[in-house]
Design goal:
Layout (H helix, E strand, L loop, with lengths): L11 H32 L2 E4 L5 H12 L3 E6 L2 H13 L5 E5 L5 H8 L7 E4 L16 H27 L5 E5 L6 H4 L14 H18 L6 E6 L16 H12 L10 E3 L12
Parallel strand pairs: 1-2, 1-4, 2-3, 4-5, 5-6, 6-7
Amino acid sequence: MLSKHPQPTAPTSAKCTIETLRSAVLSISQPLLLLHTILKDTEMKKALITGANKSIGFETARQLLNQGYFVYLGSRDAERGAQAVAQLKSEGLDNVELLQIDVSNPASVEAAGKKVSELDVLINNAGILGGMEQSALTIGLDTVREVYDTNFFGAINVTQTFIEALKKSAEPRIVNVTSGLGSLTLHSDPNWKYYQVKTAAYGTSKTALNAYTVVLAYELKDTAFKVNVVDPGYTQTDFNHHNGPGSVEDAAKIIVKYATLDADGPTGKYFSNDIDTADQESPW
């Protein structure tokens, strides 16, 4: 009668060797994966967009995310900002984070500044209209101050707060979102299509923002910074009860264009979707 032979088993020393190798591979691969994630996050350019929970700011965030940027979605209202972030993530755009920031509130801007250590792009998009009736003779000073606090002083404060984070970038970019109503040259031209649209608070706040941008660009001209003002044009948004002829997609596209300029791009310029020339450069 034949005896049953036991199945061969690996020597105990071999088992130990296999387990040791497996442990060694895991101990090496896990830190490597972590390092890869860290390096990936480090290489990804970071952008901050104020007023980005809806309309042009939201679409600008979407387009930058699609170009591989990490986006800090700035929103005065945390709940609305969270909803905007959730919407983008539902579209598979995961590299976005809510940054609660009320640009008209210095304490809010300071708090937001402490949460961002490195930045490649700053888009000062937050803005308010201040109502439709803005006569130079009758507009209240409270309205003027409120508009300037957001559109002008707010943009300055945000820029100064995040400038050190931007200086860490090899290619820092600042886009100040303006309006054609900020152009003194166009306002002085009776043939301009929006010649009759005069706003004592909104338009003048954008003129002031344009002037600040010229000074800022001049002070940074010998650095890698590119600083420009961009008018997205008369766009269908909540801002104007969706009366504009332009789309938010086209509005965001021109903002993104100047937020992602290469080293040879312009600085200290004023560009507008409403200018019908190849370079879309607007007169001041």
